[in-house]
Amino acid sequence: MNEYIIQIITATIGALGFAIYFRASEKNVLAATIGGGLGWAVFLIINHLTSSLFFANFAAALFVYLYSQGMSAILKAPSNVYLVPGTIPLIPGGALYYTMKSLIDGDEAMFKEKLIATATVTVGLATGIIVGTVLITYIKEVILKKNN
User: Fold this and answer.
1) Whole-structure pTM value
2) How many domains in the chain?
């Protein structure tokens, strides 16, 4: 349990760093930072429950996307202010590093293993964001039709 708490704190700090790096305004930094920590918490919970790297990344990316849309509406800022720092902890940096290292070292078995992990995470993240986009678009259309 302590390991999960440390991971969430580290992910939150990473999101904070990128929120500052991308010059989020002072009123948006906290929300962007919290999104990164919550996104990683969702990843840990889903990964623990399912042991599916794809589904854990899908759910975390979907959560971060929906969170960014919500914060965008509440704080009146572009959703990217929250989406980019929120997804930073989910990016498969370690897997990508080891994929490239094993390619350079000529370790074919390790290369295939890490390439599959990197691709699984990447496709999970992309799919989560795409599904979130479709959901939000559909919901907005239904609300618009209902109001007209």
Assistant:
1) 0.90
2) 1
